[in-house]
Amino acid sequence: MPLFDLVIFDLDGTLIDSKADLVNAVNATRAHLDRPPLEAPVIASYVGNGAPVLIRRALGDQASDTEVATGLDFFIRYYHEHCLDATTLYPGSRETIAALRSEGIQLAILTNKPVRISKRIIAGLSLDGDFFEIYGGNSFDQKKPHPIGIERLMEQSRVARAATLMVGDSSVDIETARNAQVAACGCKFGFAPESLASARPDFLIDHMAELSPLVLG
Question: Which long-range contacts (CB under 8 A, 24 or more apart) does 44-49 make?
Answer without folding.
Answer: 44/19, 44/191, 44/192, 45/191, 45/192, 47/12, 47/13, 47/19, 47/22, 47/191, 47/192, 48/12, 48/13, 48/112, 48/170, 48/172, 48/191, 48/192, 49/112, 49/143, 49/144, 49/172
